[in-house]
Amino acid sequence: MDFQVIREYIPLYQEAGILTVRIALIGIIGSIVAGFLCSLIRYFKIPVLHQITGVYIELSRNTPLLIQLFFLYFGLPKIGILLSSETCAIVGLIFLGGSYMSEAFRSGLEAIPDIQKESGLSLGLKKRQVIWYVLLPQAISISVPAFAANVIFLIKETSVFSAVALADLMYTAKVLIGMSYNTDEALFMLVIAYLVILLPVSALFTLLERKLRYAGFGN
């Protein structure tokens, strides 16, 4: 292992790491919004939309992200829709993550006893207020472990973005290996970069789960 080479690679991985984190952050936020809306539609079984979201979830969860990216990057231009690499990555991550987040939120909602919803309505709360003040806080607390697993999963899935020419961490490693043949150093830096991104996220969710458990939420 040549540490001089590693020192030279650090700025390149820093730049690629910032891009990867930015794409992952936008994609995860979009996934949470999409997943939350889909979970409410499926929980309350809203006609038509319930069936549409069901098809979306099955399609999203049963096709690899790489295939979805190929469709966005190579397929859509055939019908006149041209997306940049960055846009494809964000849309693909939201499409994939939205279905996983939806199921995480829905399982949290369904874990709440019906008596709580009925009690809220009997107290005169509107349906919207029951969702906001009664169901949502508990559902989020219950969903935290699945939510954390989904976030970490989505960050790791960013490693396939290089397939649509996005200059992320994996793309940088491939380029450096091809140009200099310093395979060990490039892969070592790739592993370190993902650890730097993922370990704080994992520690943060572990701390959050512990605090929620102490507070008695989700029990």
DSSP summary, beta strand count: 0
**Tell me, what is the CATH class?**
Mainly Alpha
Q: What's the number of structural domains? A: 1
The percent of residues in helical segments reads over 70%
Q: What share of residues are in beta strands? A: under 5%
The average pLDDT score comes to: 87
Q: Helices and strands, in N-to-C order?
A: HHHHHHHH
Task: Tell me the CATH superfamily.
Answer: MetI-like
Envelope shape: flat
Query: Could you tell me the radius of gyration in angstroms?
Result: 21 Å
Number of helices: 8
Low-confidence regions: none
Main sheet attributes: strand count, strand direction, barrel closure: none
What is the correct CATH architecture? Orthogonal Bundle
Distance between the termini: 50 Å
Looking at the structure, the CATH topology is MetI-like fold
The helix/strand class is mainly alpha
Describe this structure in words.
The protein has 219 residues and is mainly alpha-helical. The protein has a single domain, classed as MetI-like (MetI-like fold, Orthogonal Bundle), CATH 1.10.3720.10. The chain has eight helices and no strands. Helix 1 packs antiparallel against helix 7, helix 1 packs across helix 8 and helix 5 runs antiparallel to helix 6. The longest helix has 41 residues. The model has no long low-confidence stretch (mean pLDDT 87).
Describe, in short, the structure shown.
The chain has helices spanning 3-43, 49-61, 65-75, 85-110, 114-122, 127-157, 169-180, 183-215.
